[in-house]
Amino acid sequence: MAIDGTRLERPSSILGQLRTRKRRLTLAAVTLSVMAGTAVFDQRSSFASGATRDHSEQTISPWGVATGAEWLDDHRRFNPILAGAGVKWLRAFQEWQTVQPNRGTWNWAPSDRLIGDAAANRISLLYPLAYLPPWASADGSTRAFPIKDIQYWRDYVGAIVERYHGTVKNWEIWNEFNGSFAINGNPSIYAELVREASIAAKRIDPSARIGLSVANFDVGFLQRAIEAGAAGHFDFICVHPYEKLDLIEAGGETEFMAMASTLRRMLASHKLDDTLPLWISEVGAVATTEPQSEATQSRLLTKAYILGLASGFEKIFWFEARGPAYHDQADHGLLRTDYSPRPSFVALATLIRLLGDRPTYIGSVRAGADGLGFVFEGRQGFVMAAWNSSEKAAEMTFEAPVLVTRTDGSEAPLNARRPVSLSSAPVFLSRLPDAIVEQAKRSHNLPIQQDSDYSGANAVTLSLRETNRGSGVKQINPQTTKVFEDEGAASRRLDFSVANNEGHYAYFSVSPQFVPWGTRRLQITIAVKRLPGSPTAGFSLDYESQRGYVSAPYREIPSASDWQQLTWTIDDANFVGQWGWHFRINAIASPSEFLIRDVRVARLP
């Protein structure tokens, strides 16, 4: 039992960091004229009265984009471009310190411009309430807790909701409080922010909706915040599953789609409404100016929206509209530096054109072992988004002619009984035969199964070879290991030469069907062997627990020449994949590399 394991801090170089994720929401310093709140009451009256109130088609739409702080002031330039593509939602906000630079002094001009321009483009706002003004923070910065007086927070929330309640209805509490944007923060402090914001907002606007929010897919933090007092004070949940998106290129669709059911199980376990709306309020992928990189971003965007909608997320926001350029012009933006559209922007516009503002998920269909198809009722009938989740060949044929649309918007008819080849790049198929729609309907409530159903299995396994053979267990980022041949038998060897010490780790995930929310007792067995003639070697087991990622004790691999099985029994598992993996071999303290042959995970009563 590893309940005394050391809690791990977020690593600097794991799955989500393998692809540079440089997202900043720290507002650049700008010079703003400060005005008294009473000086702009005429503008406030239009926001509060509902003169720019959301329209139903606008608010029902799932299509959102988020913007970071660096390009926030360019909203007047990118909002019309987004609106032209059919985007109906923008996640954006002015920081608390901008709106209230000093206690009792209000500067509404920047937020008036932001909200007014969104309304002019018929774009609804998801408005995060963050960060601290220096005069209210613990150390004079904008991130450090505790807040000097919670009344400051109540006053701020009340003032901003009073001003904009005719236009803004959805308020996300903080941005990634469990990440790097709340120094000294904890679930109790966050629960207080949520509770007090809800009370203050709903006192003014009973129709205001409060969003509980978390970086990545940290369900454990959400649970602890709920238990600390947030229960009953939020109306929807927001997640930022960047690490889950990273898994999709390696066939991680099942893991991405399991997020919604995990959240609903968590809510039900706390006797809360498990039908609450779920939002992905940030997700994105970095692209450079290289065509291959931009094509990858386009694929990931398409799959993020399709899988999110198919699994039950109500709204999805791609981060971001126009991204700040880092090295090699790499950023998350849909628009390049010169505001020309990337393939990802065209893919989003194509999605919206085909599916419309009220896409209804019908169900999934399969093409061979790895071909996936997701059927929606769209703007002008039924549409299937299809792709291949592996490198194996897959194709679909139809008994009647269909129309094939690529993510670049190009179209071509496909005759009956002629195959369409599926690759990792999604395609859209419309004018579907009735038989395909009926097949999809029958699978509506079934989880997608990319190889097998593990919900009733007693154990799941993985054999590490040149090509791994998994039954319910996957190796994440196999590049941290290399193939080793020993007397004609293959296994994998940790590769200490991999940059950033990543070769000291081997990462694994378990099928969400086998470890649904609430699975606590597991036994993990790993078959390992020292390299011939090597000195001592060993490792610890890091795993995802109810307290976050923790480390179980280090064990030395016996010096015997045959394979050794090392086993850990844990009773506080919480395998939700916050950072994209569930457990890992941690050989950072090992003097030598060693071989890994098999992994087995068993459920215990």
Protein described:
The protein is 26% helix and 26% strand. With 605 residues, the chain is of the alpha+beta class. Helix 12 links the parallel strand 8 (278-283) and strand 9. The protein starts with 5 loop residues before the first strand and ends with a strand. It comes from Rhodopseudomonas palustris. GO terms for molecular function: hydrolase activity, hydrolyzing O-glycosyl compounds.
Itemize the secondary structure elements and their pairings.
Elements: E1 6-7, H1 15-18, H2 41-49, H3 56-60, E2 63-66, H4 75-85, E3 89-91, H5 96-99, H6 109-120, E4 124-129, H7 150-164, E5 170-173, H8 187-204, E6 209-215, H9 219-230, E7 236-240, H10 242-248, H11 253-269, E8 278-283, H12 291-311, E9 315-319, H13 343-355, E10 360-367, E11 371-378, E12 381-388, E13 394-396, E14 402-406, E15 411-414, E16 420-422, E17 427-430, H14 434-442, E18 459-463, E19 469-471, E20 473-476, E21 481-486, E22 489-494, E23 505-510, E24 522-530, E25 538-545, E26 548-551, E27 555-556, E28 564-570, E29 583-586, E30 594-603
Parallel strand pairs: 2-3, 2-9, 3-4, 4-5, 5-6, 6-7, 7-8, 8-9
Antiparallel strand pairs: 1-26, 10-11, 11-12, 12-17, 13-16, 14-15, 14-17, 18-19, 18-30, 20-23, 21-22, 22-30, 23-29, 24-28, 24-30, 25-26, 25-27, 25-29
